[in-house]
Amino acid sequence: MLNFESVAMRYADGTQALGGVSLQVPAGEFCVVLGSSGAGKSTLLRMANGLVKPTQGTVQVEGVRIAADSLARIRPRIGMIHQQFNLVLRSTVADNVLAGALPAMPTWRAAARQRDVGPRRRPGGGGRLLPAGAPAGVPGHQ
Description:
By secondary structure, this protein is an alpha+beta fold. Helices cover 20% and strands 22% of the residues.
């Protein structure tokens, strides 16, 4: 479960990004956070993995409070894809997500994954790459 309990965030310049937000997302549930630009959506989500520390309230993942001493234990259990950066454009969403697991993955396994689903050339496609894992016979992938 992901639990935000009365979290607030005020930046050093005085900007109030969040004010007293409480939200529980049960394990296995799908949740959408909607709001206008500047409403605090990204700030809220960045609290889930400790990239932003709330100025008030607490955040828990699977019952573990997000704090400096728990980050190393909890971060491997959290996946996050940022809106604008940190993505490898020629990789699939799955490969970008799995790249976050590389520090905890044995080298042989990472190498095997690259060998098994790495980039492939489109048949007769002038050197263009197929998306990793896309079969050559699928319409739109030829």
